[in-house]
Each structure stands twice: as C-alpha cells, then as structure tokens.
Amino acid sequence: MTIRKAVFPVAGLGTRFLPATKAVPKELLPVVDRPLVQYAVDEALEAGIETMIFVTGRNKGAIEDHFDVAYELERIQADRGKPLDALKGTRLTPGNAIFVRQQEPRGLGHAVWCARDIIGDEPFAIILPDELLIGREKGCLAQMVAQYEKVGGNLVCALEVPMEETPSYGIIDPGARDGVLTEVKGLVEKPKLGTAPSNLMLPGRYILQPEVMGLLATQEAGAGGEVQLTDSMAKLIGKQPFHGVTFDGERFDCGSKLGFAQANFALACRDAAMGAELRGWAKALLG
Ligand code: UTP
C-alpha cells in the first residue's frame, strides 16, 4: 500500500527556545526564509504524500494560518507585479491539510496517537519538523519510501552519531545490514551512557504500520515521563518487518539552538543571492 498520509507532531512547548517560542511556535522559526515546518511539508510532498496531518496544541494557530490561503497578500503581490513564488508550497490542496489537537504535551507517542482516526487502517509517515534533514540527491522521506516499496513493514531513518551522544536519542539495536537497510532487532529510548546497543540514532522520520496506534493507546509514560513512540515501535519488532534506512544527506538538530544556528549559517552560505557575501563576511569575522 502506498504511503499517502504524513503526521507532523507540532504540539511541543519548545522550551529550549524561550522566550522566542512564548508566542511563536518553534516549528515556524525560519531557517533563512522558510519556517521549519515548511521544509517538512516540502519533504513530504516530494515523497508523494497527499494528506498532511498536523498535531497541534495551544498557541499553534499560526501554523494553520501559514498553510492557509492569504488572499490580501496574494492580491497585493499580484497588483505590484511581484511573483507568487515566495508563497510556494504554503497553499496545500483544500481538505488535504488536517489539524488535530493534542490537548496536553504528553510526549511524541501521545501526539502521534492523536491522529489515529485520520490514519485509520493504512501505513503512514511521521516527520518531526525540528529535525531538518537535507538529502543529497532526494529528500529523506523519498529515500525511505523507495526502500518501503522493496521491503514494506516499518521503517525508521537511521543516522550515525558519536557514541557519547547516544543518551540523547532513540537508538537502534542493529541486525543484518544490506546496503542502506539495517534490520532492527530492538529500539531503546535515551539509553544510559555506555549501554547503547549501537550509535545509530533515530532522527525523526518514520514509516509505520497502523497497528502502532493500538499499542500507543494503552501505553504508560516512559523515559522523561512522556509517552514514547520508540516504546510502542519496539513492540512491533518480530511481529512485522522492521528496518532502519541509512540517510544520505545532512542533519541539523533544529530543536537545539546550536543546530538551529548551524542550519541557518550553512543554508545561508549556499543561498544564491547572499551566500558569497556571507562567506566572505564570515571569513573576515573569524580572521
Ligand atoms: P521535542 O521534544 O524536540 O519538542 O519534540 P519540544 O518538547 O517542543 O521541545 P523542548 O525540549 O521543550 O524545547 C519533537 C517534536 O515533537 C513534537 C514537538 O512539537 C516537536 O516537533 N511534540 C513533542 C508534540 O507534538 N507533542 C509532545 O507532547 C511532544
């Protein structure tokens, strides 16, 4: 079955970015000129996703506005003879942008479960917008969909990190490897230092079978007192095929200030209009 639906959990509080995120959703913070959630939606569109499901919460209404039609803006731009390219990708097909509420931020697993009725009985993708993944030839989700067409089942994006960083992430217990595919034998959320079964972390892209929703429904809070998606995914291992897909590209952890600053600098340096000037300026600044 093709992957038609993607869930974007955007209900988190974004406390690491306070005060910026007091009134502005973290997912709308821009990298150069596009909000994080726009990169996520563009990645989904490239992978053939038709229905975008945003799990929102209080203070996240601006995300809905972002993907709405801005009549005044479009008219003014048109009257001034300006191209509408700047708004590209923000006008989603009517009815194909769906917003559901997570009333309390009880964790990623709980946020995904909030989309259960819209997902129904079909496999679906999940994209965490604060993980900015720039694919080398094609986007991360498109890379995963290509593998899904071969092996089906459940897929997680996999990325190597230094061993000392493993306590911050969901980590794969790997089995046999075949090209970009690694069999997943187990998953651990935020293992204690020195106990991780590998250095393959999960950078926030998933293709899952709908059975995960039933597991999330009954789930207690796990690491950090939150309902962890990793714990429910782990229960599917052995029952359904489960693989990691090694991502070919760059990752920016835009949930952290360092990763966010790095993303802005790296992408601005590559920008056709300002990249050369910025690189020259940075060189002079750093001596
Ligand atoms: P994070 O844990 O990185 O986001 O969740 P956060 O909780 O907003 O960030 P900090 O730690 O307070 O700064 C990853 C993604 O999952 C969503 C977030 O919005 C983010 O896109 N999320 C997280 C939810 O939708 N609901 C939750 O309960 C938790």
Give an overview in words.
The chain is of the alpha/beta class and 287 residues long. The protein has a single domain, classed as Alpha-Beta Complex (Spore Coat Polysaccharide Biosynthesis Protein SpsA, Chain A). 30% of the residues lie in helices and 24% in strands. The chain is built from 10 helices and 14 strands. The protein has helices spanning 36-46, 61-66, 71-79, 108-113, 116-119, 140-151, 211-217, 229-234, 257-269, 275-286; strands at residues 5-9, 30-31, 34-35, 51-56, 97-101, 124-127, 131-135, 154-160, 170-178, 181-189, 200-201, 205-208, 242-246, 249-253. Strands 1, 4, 5, 6, 8, 9, 10, 11, 12 and 13 form a 10-stranded mixed β-sheet that branches. The longest helix is centred in the last third of the chain and has 13 residues, at 257-269. The radius of gyration is 19 Å and the shape is globular. The mean pLDDT is 94. Uridine 5'-triphosphate binds at residues 9-16, 26-27, 55, 102, 105-108, 110-111, 128-130, 255. Residues 9-16, 26-27, 55, 102, 105-108, 110-111, 128-130, 255 line the site of uridine 5'-triphosphate.
Keywords:
ten-stranded mixed sheet; 24% strand; 30% helix; alpha/beta; 287 residues; globular; binds uridine 5'-triphosphate; Spore Coat Polysaccharide Biosynthesis Protein SpsA, Chain A
Helix content: 25-40%
Straight-line distance between termini: 55 Å
Sequence of secondary-structure elements: EEEHEHHEHHEEHEEEEEHHEEHH
- Oligomer state equals single chain
Helix/strand structural class: alpha/beta
Helices and strands in order, then pairings?
Elements: E1 5-9, E2 30-31, E3 34-35, H1 36-46, E4 51-56, H2 61-66, H3 71-79, E5 97-101, H4 108-113, H5 116-119, E6 124-127, E7 131-135, H6 140-151, E8 154-160, E9 170-178, E10 181-189, E11 200-201, E12 205-208, H7 211-217, H8 229-234, E13 242-246, E14 249-253, H9 257-269, H10 275-286
Parallel strand pairs: 1-4, 1-6, 4-5, 8-13
Antiparallel strand pairs: 2-3, 6-12, 7-14, 8-11, 8-12, 9-10, 10-13
Bound molecules: uridine 5'-triphosphate.
